[in-house]
């Protein structure tokens, strides 16, 4: 028998009379809606994103010119959630958004799921119909608690005004502590309109919620011993290390042990790319050096990472000879995909602070392993298989840019303090490969969920965060695809009217680029439903939409570039404009592909540097792959 969702179960419980006597009389008398605004202020929240609606109007009525936080009005609830995500990643603080019930709440579910996958701290406050109307299919009623339970860290249904400040305090704490994540507060109109007595601070009631931050037992000495026995170690660093602000500790560990650093997509920049120990990103579109190092290592130290399929490829062939140390604050991640030899539950920064002295003690007793042969192999990969790209072929007369070249120029000409945001697709991979990341928290992208449309609202949130925490001195560049951008392009209005002058580079290839790449490689060039025709300049279709006119319609600056000279001039102008958003429509080669690439479901040993070039396979295995006998996906990639 199916178990009812929390809201379904609640609807079957007899409701208390609306005139229930208030038994708590200590504190200042106010409504639940006023208490919510006051609680956000007392929590230190400085910026909130959202859209009003009928079921959340009492809260919006309590927001006025005296409210201590800045409210940013977005144009879509999903965008409010993504903006809160961008703000959280850029600042390290908990992002907050407030939306209404029903479709307002369901619209933000995508952002909640995105934040959950990428461990982003966020509090999402949704309106809900009155207690008496729950379960009656009232106007704009939806079981948001039941809907969000699988994709949120925690969800609350608030029916009593007196509970509002306590629930807000708990939600904020849960979102930002332990493994960060989104917490939903579904606020009934009964609770918003009810009278209560406000006091602060609130006593939280969280039995059983005690995240482990310090390592226990002998795990630190066990891990240190593995380092002393390893001649091919690798530090595999994920987004959890970024959330823990552990960049300093990761670098110290690499310097102490001599181990190279490879990162997942969310961890780009945790240690500066200029550090010679940083090999870049590993996995499906990672560097040959990073992927090769992991495949050949004898010790894999997973630091705040979760062995995602985009990293591991075929799991049973991932780092086959490696013993594994896994450090993560979430015990559910330990052993979920790969069983570790040394499991360490705890906050990454705290664990490394304790592990590093233990390694020093081991090194004082035992000689430090000789890693020169290991680095010789790594440097050979780096030298033979650097990150390169092809220039456009059969370019039209009016020009067609290499998208990778555009990303390179954006990076070379940017302020070193720039916060980079990306949508999802080929442009996202090129940005992660080609931008020089020198600072943590300078890269914001949708990793686990891969949400197209994430970029523009996340960039707005990042800019609000830059204005709040860094006096606006950190510029925000959004690198987006024409397909991804069109999913939330209405947020140009938010960017202009709320004074967040972001800079937008649209890598316009007129197709859904990553899908087209897969269709080229694995679906016999059958380009079903991937042509957007938005920049084709065909006789029958002219730029639908025209991104320059679209930008100008929102009173933003719009530019277009077909050639390298035009592109460099546009980038120069964009960097000089700081009073309004700037959009550049870069016309790029539609058949450009992201390389290296591991075909989905294949072993990372089969990574293709280019079609037919598989550096991690033996010559015999390469010949076999080229003949198509190792699998259709491999053969298709080689034949493309």
Write structural notes for this entry.
This protein is of the alpha/beta class and 640 residues long. The protein folds into three domains: 26-196, Rossmann fold, CATH 3.40.50; 215-383, 3-Layer(aba) Sandwich (Rossmann fold), CATH 3.40.50; 401-585, 3-Layer(aba) Sandwich (Rossmann fold), CATH 3.40.50. It is 37% helix and 15% strand. It has 26 helices and 20 strands. Strands 3-2-4-5-7-6 form a six-stranded parallel beta sheet. Helix 24 links the parallel strand 19 (557-561) and strand 20 (582-587). It is globular and about 75 Å long. It starts with 5 loop residues before the first helix and ends with a helix. The model is unreliable at 17-22 (pLDDT under 50). This is Acetolactate synthase. Residues 30-145 form the Thiamine pyrophosphate enzyme N-terminal TPP-binding domain. Belongs to the TPP enzyme family.
């Amino acid at each position: 028998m199916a178990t009812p969702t929390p809201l379904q179960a609640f609807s079957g419980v007899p409701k208390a009379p609306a005139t229930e006597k208030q038994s708590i009389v200590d504190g200042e008398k106010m409504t639940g809606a006023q208490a919510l605004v006051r609680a956000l202020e007392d929590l230190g929240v400085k910026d909130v994103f959202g859209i009003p609606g009928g079921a959340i109007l009492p809260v919006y009525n309590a927001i006025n010119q005296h409210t201590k936080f800045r409210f940013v009005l977005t144009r879509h609830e999903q965008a409010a959630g993504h903006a809160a995500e961008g703000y959280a990643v850029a600042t390290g603080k908990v992002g907050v958004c407030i939306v209404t019930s029903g479709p307002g709440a369901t619209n933000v579910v995508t952002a909640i799921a995105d934040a959950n996958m990428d461990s982003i701290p966020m509090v999402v406050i949704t309106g809900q119909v009155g207690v008496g109307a729950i379960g009656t299919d009232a106007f704009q009623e939806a079981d948001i608690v039941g809907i969000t339970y699988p994709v949120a860290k925690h969800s609350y249904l608030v029916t009593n005004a007196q509970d509002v400040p306590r629930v807000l305090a708990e939600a904020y704490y849960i979102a930002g502590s332990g493994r960060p994540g989104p917490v939903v507060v579904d606020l009934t109109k009964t609770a918003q309109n009810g009278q209560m007595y406000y006091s602060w601070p609130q006593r939280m009631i969280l039995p059983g919620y005690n995240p482990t931050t310090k390592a226990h037992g002998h795990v630190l000495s066990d891990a240190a011993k593995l380092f002393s026995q390893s001649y091919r170690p690798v530090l595999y660093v994920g987004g959890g290390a970024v959330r823990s602000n552990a960049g300093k500790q990761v670098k110290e560990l690499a310097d102490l042990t001599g181990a190279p650093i490879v990162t997942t997509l969310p961890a780009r920049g945790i240690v500066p790319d200029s550090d010679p120990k940083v090999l870049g990103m590993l996995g499906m579109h990672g560097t040959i050096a990073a992927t090769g190092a992991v495949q050949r290592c004898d010790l894999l130290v997973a630091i705040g990472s979760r062995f995602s399929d985009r990293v591991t490829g075929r799991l049973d062939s991932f780092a086959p000879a490696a013993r594994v140390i896994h450090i993560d604050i979430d015990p559910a991640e330990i052993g979920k995909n790969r069983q570790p030899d040394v499991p360490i539950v705890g906050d990454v920064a705290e664990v490394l602070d304790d592990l590093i002295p233990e390694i020093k003690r081991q090194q004082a007793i035992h000689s430090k392993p000789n890693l020169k042969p290991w680095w010789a192999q790594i440097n050979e990969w780096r030298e033979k298989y650097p990150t390169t790209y092809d220039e456009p072929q059969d370019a039209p007369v009016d020009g067609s840019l290499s998208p990778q070249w555009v990303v390179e120029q954006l990076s070379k000409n940017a302020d070193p303090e720039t916060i980079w945001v990306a949508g999802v697709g080929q442009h996202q991979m090129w940005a992660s490969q080609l931008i020089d990341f020198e600072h943590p928290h300078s890269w914001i992208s949708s990793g686990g969920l891969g949400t197209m449309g994430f970029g523009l609202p996340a960039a707005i949130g990042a800019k609000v965060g830059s204005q709040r925490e860094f006096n606006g001195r950190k510029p925000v560049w959004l690198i987006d695809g024409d397909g991804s951008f069109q999913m939330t392009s209405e947020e140009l209005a938010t960017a202009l009217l709320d004074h967040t002058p972001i800079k937008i580079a649209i890598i316009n290839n007129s197709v859904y680029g990553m899908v087209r790449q897969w269709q080229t490689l694995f679906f016999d060039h059958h380009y079903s439903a991937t042509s957007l025709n938005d920049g084709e300049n065909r006789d029958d279709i002219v730029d639908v939409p025209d991104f320059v006119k679209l930008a100008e319609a929102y009173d933003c600056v719009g530019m277009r570039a077909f050639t390298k000279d035009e592109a460099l001039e546009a980038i120069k102008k964009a960097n000089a404009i700081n009073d309004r958003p700037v959009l550049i429509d870069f016309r790029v080669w539609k058949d450009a592909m992201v390389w290296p690439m591991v075909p989905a479901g294949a072993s990372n040993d089969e990574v293709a540097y280019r079609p037919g070039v598989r550096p991690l396979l033996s010559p015999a295995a390469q010949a076999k792959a080229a003949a198509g006998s190792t699998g259709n996906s491999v053969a298709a990639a080689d034949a493309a």
